[in-house]
Amino acid sequence: MSRLFVHFSPVKNTMTKHVALLLILFPVCGHLLDIKFYNNPYEYTWEEAVTFCREHHTDLVRVRTAEEDEALQYSGWIGLSRKNATSPWKWSRGDEIAIFTPWHGAPNDNENCVNRESNGKWESEECDEEKPFLCYEEKLILVKENKTWEEALEHCRSLDGVVTEDPASSYRNHGYDLASLITPDDYTTARETAKEATTDEVWTGLCNLAGEWLWVGGEEMQYEDIPKCPTEGLCGVLEKNGSSPYGIRNCQQKRNFLCSKMN
In angstroms, rounded to a whole number, what is the distance separating the alpha carbons of residues 258 and 263? Predict the structure, then answer.
């Protein structure tokens, strides 16, 4: 069952007022797919809405199935647009072509952005119109900074962490960690996110300690064919354009990395 919360974010063109965002949670599959949706009743153009969602959350919502669409229950801009009347409809995150599109009538030629109505139907609109909008937030974060594996681990664990005088606290009280990729959905989500990386591979939470391969989050290791040796100084990566579930690289190399929210 969905739960409803209230989240506050800045209102357009003011530093002092705030507007309530409705937070809708619904169950999805996958270790990294704990997705939250935010309904902002303040009105923005489509481009302004994209900017706001990317600054404060992940992006405008991307809706792939009837189940996801039904769970929203609110109206506003969604992350679907096109360049012109002959271009395909694509989601703002990942440049993915939309397959599920419950249109309420055929889109108009001069309307290139999509508004979701309260009845669940989607309508094309002119992108410079101002409307409420729907943001979403994922557990997975791509950090486009080149760091060694250990530096990446420290970076992830510093995000939204508990600050204490104990220098080891980041290894016990942290909100994020390097990403553990456990399920097939995790790999799909991670590889799609990694496509925006500035390096060909990204660090994950796979590492070797005392001769044992493990995920830094403590999840059970699912690979039986992972090399047993040499192991010293080796850590796990995900290729953004490859098909292998993991790669093994020198931990001192520097590349982008994936952080995931712990809960």
Answer: 16
* Widest Cα–Cα separation across the chain: 62
- For residues 98 and 192, what is the distance between their CA atoms, to the nearest angstrom? 15
pTM tops 0.85, yes or no: no
Which of 92, 126, 131 has its CA nearest to residue 109?
Answer: 126
| Domain assignments of the chain as residue spans, ordered by start | 3-137, 140-261
Peptide bond into 107 cis (omega under 30): no
Q: Which of 87-96, 108-117, 133-142, 150-159 has the highest mean pLDDT?
A: 108-117
Band (185; pLDDT cuts 50, 70, 90) = confident
Q: How far is CA 224 from CA 219, 220, 229, 255, in A?
A: 15, 11, 13, 26
Q: Which residues of 98-117 are buried (b: 16+ CB within 10 A; e: fewer)?
A: beeeeeeeebeeebbbbbbe
Q: Give CATH for domain 3-137.
A: 3.10.100.10
The fold of the 140-261 domain, in CATH, is Mannose-Binding Protein A; Chain A (3.10.100)
> From the CB of residue 96, how many other CB atoms can be counted at a distance below 10 Å?
17
Question: Which of 93, 247, 94, 256 minimizes the C-alpha distance to 178?
Answer: 256
